[in-house]
Structures
1.
Amino acid sequence: MSPLLFDENLSPHLPRLVADLFAGGLHVRDVGLARADDSAVWEYARTHGLAIVTKDDDFRQRSFLYGSPPKVIWVHLGNCRTADVQALLMARVAGVRAFLDDPTSSLLVLQRSE
C-alpha cells in the first residue's frame, strides 16, 4: 500500500491524524514542496511511490490524462474542516486501502454519502 502525500490544500496535520490507519503519510510541506506547482508534486509522488490526497481538481484531471503512478485520491467535499476530511478517510479506510492495493486503479473520488 502506497503512503499518502497530502496536498497543499489540505491540513499539514492530516498525516498525523490518520497515521494509525495510513502509516508513512506526508504533507507536501514535509518534503519541501510547499507552494510547488502541480507538476513538481506529481513527479515527487510518482518517484517516491506516494499516492496524492487532494481537493485540487487539477490532480483529478492529471489522473485522467496520465493514469498512475501516482494514484490520486480526490477529496470532493468543498469547503470543510480538517476534521471532516479526517472523518471521511476514517469512514472509507477499507475502500482507500483496496484502491491503493489495486494496480489498475488510478483515481479514487471520496465524497460524503447522501
2.
Amino acid sequence: MKTLSDVKTKSSAIVKGVKGSDTLRLLEMGFTPGSKVEVVRAAPLGFPIEVKVRGYLVSLRKSEAECIEIK
C-alpha cells in the first residue's frame, strides 16, 4: 500500500482512501477518494510537506501523510 508520504516532491497522485485517527479532519481538508494531490515542497528533513489539493495548499506532518492511501 502506497501512501502520500511515498510521493516525491513535484509529483502527483490520486487519493484512494483515508485511514487512521485523523480521517475526518483529512476528509474535511479535501483528501477524498478520487482527488488529485501534488506534493509541492518538503522541509529539508522531509517533513512537513506542502501538498496542493483542490486548489489549496496544505501542510501535513508525516503521520498525517501516512494516513492517505494513493493510487
3.
Amino acid sequence: MAAGHHEIEKRGLPGPLAFLREDAGFVAGVIVTVVAILFADEVHATLDNAVLAFPAFLVLFGVMLWCAFGVVRHADSLAVLLGEPYGTLILTLAVIGIEVALIAALMLTGKSSPETARDTMMSVLMIVLCGMVGLTLLLGGWRHIEQSHNLQGATAFLSVLVPLAVLSLILPRYTTSTAEPTFSAAQAVYFSLASIFLYGIFLAMQTVRHGDFFRPPSAPFSSAARHGEEAAEESSVSHDHGDLVLRPTAWHAVMLLGTLLPIILLSKTLAKFVDYGTTELQLPAALGGLLIAILVLTPEGLGAVKAALGNQIQRSVNICLGSALATIGLTVPAVLVIGLVTAQPVVLGLPPAKEILLILTLGVSIVTFLSGRTNMLLGAVHLVIFATYIVLIFDQPIASPDLPVATE
C-alpha cells in the first residue's frame, strides 16, 4: 500500500447514522429518482412553466452532482483497497460511465443532436486542460511559488492525448467520405479500435511497466527541496485521501454501482430539460455539453485543486491529463458505437473558431507540461483560454442577408 495510506481509517459496515452521513448523496439520488419515475408527467409539465423549470433543473442537477461525488469517493476507496492497476481502472470506468450515459441520453432525447458528443468532448478538454489546469497551477504557484512534476509522465499523457484529440475533433471536418464533418462507418470502427488500443497500451504503461513516470520527481529536482522544505512531503505522497473512511471492499463496490444508478436513471430527465433549453429558450446548443462536462469533472477538479494547494502537483497533473485522455480514449469510441447501433449521425468535426482554440490549447499544454515545472503565469494563460472558450459558447451567429451563417 502506498505511503500515506496507513493514516486512512478502516471500519466495518456503517450503522444507520453513519450511512446517512457518508452516503447522503445516494439517499437523495434514490428519492429524486423515485419521484422522477412515479411523477414523470408532473416533472415534465414543469417545462411549460419557466418559473418552475429552473428550480426543478437545479434540484435535478445538484442531486446528480452529489451522486457523482459519491461515485468518485467509493471508486477512490476501491483504488486504495485493491491497489493498481485496478484502482485506476475502476475510477476511470466509473467516471466514463457517467459521461457516456449522459451523452447517450442527450443524443436520444427530443430533437436529434448529432453535435452533442462533439460539444461534450470539447467542453471536457477545455474544462480540464484550461479551467482545471489553470486553476491548479495558479493556486499552486500562489502558495508554493514553483512546483515540479514528473516530465516522463506528462510526456506519456500528451503523446497519446494530442493525436487522439486531433483525430477525433479536427480530422472529421476534412474527411471527404461523408458530406457532414463525420466519420464514415468504416472510419468510425477503425478510430474506435485505434483509440481503445492506444489507451490500453497507455494504461498498461501507467499501472504496470512504468508506474514511476506518474509519481513525483526525486527530491533533488523537487521545488520543495529547492526552497528548503521537506522533500519527502511531496515525493512520498502521491495521493491525498483526506478523511476517507474505508469499509469492506464488497461494500464500496455495491455502493459505487448503487450511487451510479440514480445518475444513469436521471440522465433521461436531465436531457429533457437541456433539450427544452436549447430548443424552446434558444440557449446555445454547446451548453448541454458544458453541463455534462461540469457534472462529470467537478469531483475530480476539486481533488486536483486540493492536491495543488497541498504541494502535490503530481497528483493534480495525473488527475487533469488522465481525465482528458480517458474522455478521448474511451468516451469517443463509445459514442461512435452508439451512433452506429442507433443509425444516428455523430458530428465530431469542430467549427473553425473552436478548432483554432483546441489547437492553441494543445500547444500551450505542451509548453506548460514539458518544462517539468509550473508557476502562476502558466496557470493564468490557461484560464484566459478557458474564458475565451466560454465567451465563444455564448457568441451566437447573427443571420445576415448578405453573409452566410456559420453553423456550429
